[in-house]
Amino acid sequence: MSETTRSEFVLTRLIKAAGYSSILFIGLIFFFLLREGAPALVEIPLGSLVAARWYPIEGFFGLLPLIGGSIVVTIGATFVAVPLGLLTAIYIAEVAPRPARELLKPLVELLAGLPSVMLGFLGVVALAPYLRKLLDLPTGLAAFTGSLLLGGIAIPTVVSVAEDALDAVPRTYREAAKALGATKWQIIWRVTLPAARSGVLTAVMLGIGRVIGETMAVMMVTGNAPVVPTGLAALFRPIRTMTATIAAEMGEVAEGSVHYHALFLIGILLFLISLGINLLAASVVFRQRTRAERVLS
Amino acid sequence: MALNAQRRRITQQVGFGVLLLAALLTVLPIALIVGLILWRGAPAISLEFLTAAPRDGMKAGGILPAIVGTFWLTLGTAVVVVPFGVGAAVYLSEYAPESRWTRLIRIAIINLAGVPSVVYGLFGLGLFVLFLRFGTSILAGSLTLAIMTLPVIISTAEEALRAVPQSFRVVSISLGGTQWQTIRRVVLPQAVPGILTGVILGLERAAGETAPILFTAAAFFLPRLPGSPFDATMALPYHLFVISTQVPGMPIQLQYGTAAVLLGFVLVMNLLATVVRSRARARRQW
Amino acid sequence: MSNPDPVKVSIQHLSLAYSDGKESLRNVSLDVRSHAITVLFGPAGGGKSTLLRTINRLNDLTDVVHVSGSVRLDGEDILDPATDLISLRRRVGMVFARPVVLPMSVRQNLTYGLELAGERNPARLAELVERSLRAAALWEEVEGRLDDPAISLSGGQQQRLCLARVLALEPEVIMLDEPTSGLDPISTGKVETSLQELKHEYTLLLVPHSVQQAARTADYAAFMLEGELIEFGPGKDLFTRPQEQRTEDYIEGRFG
Questions:
Q1: What is the mean pLDDT of residues B80-96?
Q2: Are A214 and A243 in contact (CB under 8 A)?
Q3: Which one, A207, B178, C7, C255, has the greatest CB density within 10 A?
Q4: CATH classification at residue B82
């Protein structure tokens, strides 16, 4: 009996430790990024970081082209992923007959599981050459191609979060609207979507977060030219994102060099961006949940 | 009145048509991708391709070291992430009080899920490769992938545990069960299929990742098989990246073949998850 | 009753509140005698289930913010924080309103509690399985299906299995919270017959699902309303000559 109690005590402690491990890991990630990246802030003057030239071999560490590249690709991908993702989610949750739903959901799940390097590969061998010919560009390896691919990569995130939000809208809302004579289409636009709007917003934010953090596919198809993008035409020229810069250059730098520290600094930036997006998304979710709890009790 | 109703009906028809179109635009490319890779990749796949090391600057031979490397990385990830992830899920679902700390844990998990994969690579480089001196190795890569996969495992496992009816727990406690006995003998067995599905899908993602292993485990070209957890290794996704962008003049067939093997792995894992899920649903006793 | 049985559970000045302010108990005092059926009845939300769940400390699983008073089992205060809850719950068994069979076989449902208590002897387990099934009037019906999933039994059989599962632990007190609320009249009759048999060996505390069932089964009856004990006495007195107006109104169906 005391044997049972003792092993139960130990197990409970281990489970609790596992529960708290996530906090530890987030802390460790931030600590090690700071440890390797913070020196860059001392080694490189702030004015040089906020500059338009990234050319580490000659000591230029301007982050603007990389940040700009990430922004351009992200905006482009958002225009692909948000409308397609949301409309698909609405179709699956509200309109699709059962067999269509049973077919669509696993396919979207499959897309979520496709390695980004595989999509990048297809981008290189199929999509980029096709777009180059179609749009008559000097190269298909451009921001536009990256946006299309990243949009596709973000779609499963948008679909699944938005679909959950739509499913969570109480059935009684729809039935009440139906009793008032609304068509299915009116119910979707005037009842279900407004009721699910915080979840839909979360879906958009998490989709954007997914795009900003994506690395391999974007590195393979955007041409990797660290140029500050200006104007709409930038969409059809090669660019380079923050993530791609880290992935492409980390393998070639010496540990402890200024360049090495600068790459970790970009990592810190990415970490903080994702932290911001996720905290924002989480606060929306939590607020919604507390409201539901208040209604129930 | 009748006109109005007719207009409403037409609006609805058009609206549903747009929704259907969007859904098709989403899933048709997926079918296209799968079809293209399997169609172009199938001719490259042979016994030699699957069981030999690359030759002639990777322009001939097979991809065995990459397959084996991905196998070990995935296994290593599983060994670390399953106990941690399931433990954390049990804590959150069965023990955690409604408190500030629990909220902090949940926020940490949400953020772990959002950290970009290349940032995990940097973290793994800083902690495992350099600070703990594991070097570029399967060990460092597996640990990095495990921490990246952790939030997926925790959230799917917690969902599976929460789906087990509360009444089972109350009955078990009322029969003199301790909380751990209740979890061990009633709750966990019922949650196993759901947990397993999450683990399969989580490992599928981990196995397909490139950025986290770029600086922690991956070797550009290493024809021999890894001999210990402290060896660097080739890996399927990284190999695909290398031969499609880093080596000029690579035969396209080999590239498609490698992509097809990777895709095959993803499809098998997806199928496995589907089977586990539907079998569990058929056998469920509640 | 001329020669009342000894008091098994003595509840004195028990008050209890939940964090959400729902159903609570206010200054309840009640003696539950052994070898008898004590019935707790009254409208929903009156604190009957709460009272049961206090006696086996199942309320510990919920959000209780305040408890005062005492609950003594054979003279021992079970509200004492040092109480061994595991052994308490083996001594005080509970059958719930909805039959909840565990997701395992019929046999495993019966041996579950015994195995948790460390009983490993197969002969002893088999003996207890049969004896408890017989006592719950279920043996004939499931004798050949002991290894089937318990969920495959009918609703009435499941509820009797839940009773048998408690009996297998050889408890001293058995509490039943509307055990027949989901059952048809025939199954209800079987359960009620079992209870009349069981009271010779155990102390029974029953929350009935109707006033009629209360009147049929009660040796002692307690009328509870909004967390208070309104009236308590031998069943035959309370149902024929209630002292309190509110008791009489409820029995005669003037409110529910």
A1: 96
A2: yes
A3: A207
A4: 1.10.3720.10
Element at B219 (helix H, strand E): none
Neighbours of A265 (CB within 10 A): 24
Per the structure, the count of domains in chain A is: 1
Q: How distant is the alpha carbon of residue A62 from its chain centre?
A: 24
- Residue C3's pLDDT is what? 64
Range of the domain at A77: 38-296
Query: According to DSSP H, which parts of chain B are helical?
Result: 2-41, 47-51, 64-90, 100-114, 117-124, 138-163, 166-174, 179-182, 188-208, 211-214, 236-241, 252-283
Q: How far is CA B152 from the centre of its chain?
A: 8
**Distance (Å, whole) CA C62 – CA C214:** 28
Select the residue of B171, B189, B190 nearest C100 (Cβ to Cβ): B171
| Straight-line distance from the first to the last Cα atom of chain C, in angstroms, rounded to the nearest whole number | 30
Flag whether A75 is in a domain. Answer: yes
**DSSP 8-state code for residue A126:** I
Q: Which domain holds residue B83?
A: 59-283
Residue A294 above 60 pLDDT? no
Chain A, residues 101-130, CB within 8 A of chain B, namely 104, 106-111, 113-122, 124-126
Q: Which chains have 3+ CB pairs within 8 A of C? A: B
pLDDT at B238 over 80: yes
Confidence band of C61 (pLDDT split at 50, 70, 90): confident
Chain A residue numbers touching B123 (CB-CB < 8 A): 28-29, 32-33, 267
Indicate if the pLDDT at residue A296 is higher than 90.
no
In a domain, A276, yes or no: yes
Q: Is residue B157 part of a domain?
A: yes
Asked whether residue B77 is domain-assigned, the answer is yes
**For all residues of chain A together, what is the average pLDDT?**
90
**For residues C94 and C128, what is the distance between their CA atoms, to the nearest angstrom?**
18
ipTM greater than cut 0.85? yes
Looking at the domain assignment, is residue B249 inside a domain? yes
Is A5 a member of any domain? no
What's chain C's average pLDDT? Answer: 91
pLDDT value, residue A11: 92
User: Is residue B267 one of the residues assigned to a domain?
Assistant: yes
Q: How far apart are CA B59 and CA B61, in angstroms?
A: 7
What's the CATH code of the domain at A118? 1.10.3720.10
| Full-model pTM | 0.91
Give me the mean pLDDT over the B215-238 stretch.
Answer: 92
